[in-house]
Amino acid sequence: MKTLKTYRVIKGTGLAVAGISALAMAVGAQAATLNIVSWGGAYSMSQHEAYDKPWMEKTGDEIVNIDRSGNALAGLRAQSQAGNVTWDLVDMLPADAMIACAEGLIEPLEHDELLADAPDGTPASEDFVEGGLGDCFVASIVYSNIVAFNSDMFPADEQPSTIEDVFDLENYPGKRALLRKPINNMEWALIADGVERDEVYAMLETEEGVQRAFAKLDTIKDEVIWWEEGAQPPQLLADQEVAFASAYNGRIFNAMVTEDQPFEILWDAQVFELDGWVVPTGKLDKVKDYLHFATDTQRLADQAQYISYGPARLSSSELVSTHAETGIEMTPHMPTHEPNFATALQKDDLFWADYNDELTQRFNAWLSQ
Amino acid sequence: MSESPAAPLRTADGVPLKVSLRRAVRRSKIKALLLVAPLLTFLIIAFVMPLFEMLWRSVDNPEVSTHLSRTVAALEGWNGESLPDETTFAALAEDLREGQQARNLGLLSSRLNYEKSGMRSTISRTARRIGTLEPPYREALIEVNDTWGELDTWKLIQRETSPYTMSYYLAAIDRQLSPDGEIITVPEHMQIHATLFWRTLWMSAVITGLTLLLGYPVAFLLASLPARHSNLLMILVLLPFWTSLLVRTTTWIAILQSQGVLNDVMVALGIIADEARWQMIHNKMGTIIAMTHILLPFMILPLYSVMKTIPPSYMRAARSLGGKPFLSFRRVYFPLTIPGIAAGGILVFILSIGYYITPALVGGQSGRFITNYIAYHMQTSLNWGLAAAIASILLFVVIICYLVFNRLIGVDKVKLG
Amino acid sequence: MQQILDRDEEVAAQADSSDCFVRFIDVQKSYDGVELVVKGFNLDVRHGEFVTLLGPSGSGKTTCLMMMAGFETPTHGQILLKGEPINDLPPHKRGIGMVFQNYALFPHMTVAENLAFPLEVRHLSKDEIQRKVDRALAMVRLEDFGARRPAQLSGGQQQRVALARALVFEPDLVLMDEPLGALDKNLREEMQYEIKRIHASLGVTMIYVTHDQTEALTMSDRIAVFNDGVVQQLATPDTLYEAPENAFVASFIGENNRLLGEVVERQGERCQVRLDSGETVTATPVACGEVGTRTTLSLRPERVAIFDHSRQDELDNCFRGEVLEVIYLGDHLRTRLRVCGNDDFILKTPNAKGHSALKPGQGVEVGWSWRDCRALDA
């Protein structure tokens, strides 16, 4: 905490964060109200259905959802520096959690003490997927960054099947929609260029590797529409503005199942990633019961009824059933489903913690060339 | 002046005139002060303090000196030619151990990572294993992470011991300090800010020019029409003010996008082919169109307020003296509107270089402003020092504009209707 | 006096001919299509003449001037300049000098630049411009002010610059729109003579608009009295004063005693009017109707005399009155009386030697000649 005190307290800086958190404080002033920060949209809905509703029924607590996970780290910093933390529980990416943890913004967690055992008695520390438990982090889902395509835009016998096809303008013409960030794109570029999966990040640490990735991206740069909001790729695919689009697999699943869109997911070279909970410093006592409940085996399995993200607990997989709305079997749509998972790449959070600033600047410079 | 100290002027009851005057004025001064006090307080808290906070942050550099205090002390006098000695490594190990216990190494590692990618994981990995390390620390630390064996790492730490740094400003103009402390340009593939500054400035200039071109005739009409017509026109001018910025901007998206109204109309009329729809948004054009529209009133109002004070008889006089309409306008009317042009121009230009939402929504990649990078560094990369440095440079540009304007035209000429 | 009158009749005769300099023919103007601001204006101005359009504000006089200058278009009728219709001629092609009420000197130019403007747009050579500007400055006695800005000049100096600028390009016609309205009284009188002097020396035609009757009477060859969009009377200053043709002109120009009554008898150049208060007055019928119609009698205060038996033949109207108030005005006395039921009957008497002042409340007998008493419209 010494660190934070050496910084002078910001009062009334132009940060919108402060205003929004003040608002959140006003809303959540009562004792049994939990201010939970998440991503909004379909994802928050699935959390609401799987965790919040049963919890509210059980305890009578009120849960306020705040859609601020997109800037969760900045929000935590600002609240901490202003000396007024109003968020009780935050859904964030493990890379951000690592930084927040190092800055002392969030609580270190004793996993076996805080979290429920698996139904068969396996302790929590052994029941999560690899990397699912960080110093200050508990994963709840495995989601995946994939490339999807609109099957109507290719002849039935010439459907794309690998990540190389995304970079093959000759055989698979059309626009591509990609996330306007270096993350995923750099990995895919190298894999499509023939780099082995387990060498991708080592390669990206070298100047040669970065140049190789950009060179590969250069081959399709003119055909790329860059997206920034998760809702854009399914829309662009549906409008046939693009042939391929990188996306979060849950969004594509949603469009395929509930809107009946002719989309297909290229599971090849999916970059999977975890997402889960962190507890802002000083809030552990307030939220530990909820955290225990929301991360147990059944709750994580339940969440898969609403969105096609894999549960982060190994013991939940067997309990994954059918889609709540349409009743289709969920397992084949999960990133962790065996055939889908064969060529998967796990996002290296440590690499991106080190190189994101530099590569983002370089990526932006590349874009504006 | 003429009064001597021996015999100051006195009022009828013998009080010195100056004392009496001061007493009489004091009450009205206090009253005036009380009247402005709420706004003054508000401005100090909400404007002046954050401004200095920002300027402070752009040079503030406490991380290394605070969190590596022992290392910094041990590095004093280090020659920088070979790796530091064991004492320094031991000091580093001690600093990291303390930092790991207090869990406050995050800001340090972020700070060093700005200067040298990889420092974040170097510090976090080393810190995680610090408990298991045994002397001699020099070998042990290099064993954990060979970054500690690089001379540049130590040069960097030594350089950043100063509580103030220029590196944010350097980064803001695509420069950096080499390990040897020289200012060098960052590699071309990393250059982004200088380009954006120039783009922001010239696009703002284009937007200012367009608002002038479109606003001048409107302001002229406003100033010369009889009141009942000009009131209606004024409402039309002000209408954009009453509509939310976001609504206006998204309306432009609906109109200009490739499947949008304008393209549809042109395709329907056969002006362009369906495959060759114009890309008018998510590029520079989108930013320029939307911002010209949004900023137009800021040009029209100062122009109008100046034009309103120009009696119609000047133009009539010029015409009756034999001036053709355009010549009369150029020689007589136009010179008289220059204060309005300057006021509107400076206003639109300054607002424009600070715009952020509109370029973010309709600018795509090529129509982005430097302000979008301030937001990016505030919210996403969380490099607030760099955000503050860019914002301070922008502030500096605005102040220069203001000073030039004040020198040429005089700020007292600015009126807003 | 008689001589001047003769000359003016001659002038009027000439103006009727077709080669007159400026001519308004049945000009009408309406701004809103509902109301006429100018209703059928006819005017002929001879070359070199100084004509004033006089009237209260809103009477249409300025509108006529603006139509002449080309800033307003007549809704109906024609304006001729040197015999040519100019309705469709833009202002800058008319070659008419104009002096505006607020002078309209260009504030961003020096005095010399202001004066040079009309010459530059006519593409005169630099030397010639210089020469003409210097001459114009000398004419208005501002030789040393060429380098100043208008804002650095006094009101009177600005006025002279405006005059010089309107004349510097040697127009045949100069229009002036209340040019002296912003000046104080002394300066205004000085400028009246100045303008008169310049007019005389240059022989330029001037049309002058004012609402100040003294100004109009001092400066003009002829005056057109405006009211309600119509010219009430167009005549020389003395004719307007001595022989107003209607009640408006009589009351607008100079002071005027009004007596209301009904015509009871008309015989040749006299008529008998029975006042509302019962008395019968002999008057000159000017604009009154037949027997039985109402009329306003107009009588100048200085033409009323205190009854004196030596002038008995002359003063054919004689009535008793009562002094209500006496005001001493130095060169003359102004006495307010009650005569024929009128409490505002004014009597102006010169402050002649040995003249005995009247006292309020005192009874007095006053009289006037039938020639001075004009029976006008009701």
Automatic annotation (TrEMBL), chain A:
Alphabetically sorted, this entry's keywords are: Signal
Key word Signal present in the record?
yes
* Entry superkingdom: Bacteria
Q: Which Pfam family is an annotated match for this chain, by its short name?
A: SBP_bac_8
Q: Which Gene3D superfamilies match?
A: Periplasmic binding protein-like II
**PANTHER family (UniProt xref):** ABC TRANSPORTER SUBSTRATE-BINDING PROTEIN, SPERMIDINE/PUTRESCINE-BINDING PERIPLASMIC PROTEIN
Q: What is this protein called?
A: Putative spermidine/putrescine transport system substrate-binding protein
| Provenance organism | Halomonas korlensis
What taxonomic classification does the UniProt entry list for its organism? Answer: Bacteria, Pseudomonadati, Pseudomonadota, Gammaproteobacteria, Oceanospirillales
From TrEMBL, chain B:
Q: Which UniProt keywords apply?
A: Cell membrane, Membrane, Transmembrane, Transmembrane helix, Transport
Q: Which PANTHER family match?
A: ABC TRANSPORTER PERMEASE PROTEIN, INNER MEMBRANE ABC TRANSPORTER PERMEASE PROTEIN YDCU-RELATED-RELATED
Which GO CC terms are listed, alphabetically? plasma membrane
- Name one matching Pfam family: BPD_transp_1
Where does this protein come from, organism-wise? Halomonas korlensis
This protein's record includes keyword Transport: yes
Xref: CDD domains: TM_PBP2
Query: What residue ranges are annotated as transmembrane?
Result: 32-52, 201-225, 232-255, 288-311, 332-357, 384-405
The record's family statement is:
Belongs to the binding-protein-dependent transport system permease family. CysTW subfamily.
State the membrane topology. Multi-pass membrane protein
Q: Which GO BP terms sit in this record?
A: transmembrane transport
Protein name, UniProt field: Putative spermidine/putrescine transport system permease protein
Subcellular localization is given as: Cell membrane
| Residue span, ABC transmembrane type-1 domain | 197-405
TrEMBL record, chain C:
What is the E.C. number?
Answer: 7.6.2.11
Q: Which family does it belong to?
A: Belongs to the ABC transporter superfamily. Spermidine/putrescine importer (TC 3.A.1.11.1) family.
Q: What is this protein called?
A: Spermidine/putrescine import ATP-binding protein PotA
Where the record annotates domain ABC transporter, the positions are 22-253
What does this protein do, in the record's words?
A: Part of the ABC transporter complex PotABCD involved in spermidine/putrescine import. Responsible for energy coupling to the transport system.
Question: To which species is this protein native?
Answer: Halomonas korlensis
Q: Which NCBIfam families match?
A: potA (TIGR01187)
| InterPro entries given in the database record | AAA+_ATPase, ABC_SmlMolc_Importer, ABC_transporter-like_ATP-bd, ABC_transporter-like_CS, Mo/tungstate-bd_C_term_dom, P-loop_NTPase, PotA-like, Transp-assoc_OB_typ2
Q: Which reaction does it catalyse?
A: ATP + H2O + polyamine-[polyamine-binding protein]Side 1 = ADP + phosphate + polyamineSide 2 + [polyamine-binding protein]Side 1
Q: Which gene encodes it?
A: potA
Entry's Gene Ontology molecular function annotations:
ABC-type polyamine transporter activity; ATP binding; ATP hydrolysis activity
The top EC class, named as a word, is translocase
Q: Which keywords accompany this UniProt record?
A: ATP-binding, Cell membrane, Membrane, Nucleotide-binding, Translocase, Transport
Sorted alphabetically, the Gene Ontology cellular component annotations on this record are:
ATP-binding cassette (ABC) transporter complex
- Its quaternary structure? The complex is composed of two ATP-binding proteins (PotA), two transmembrane proteins (PotB and PotC) and a solute-binding protein (PotD).
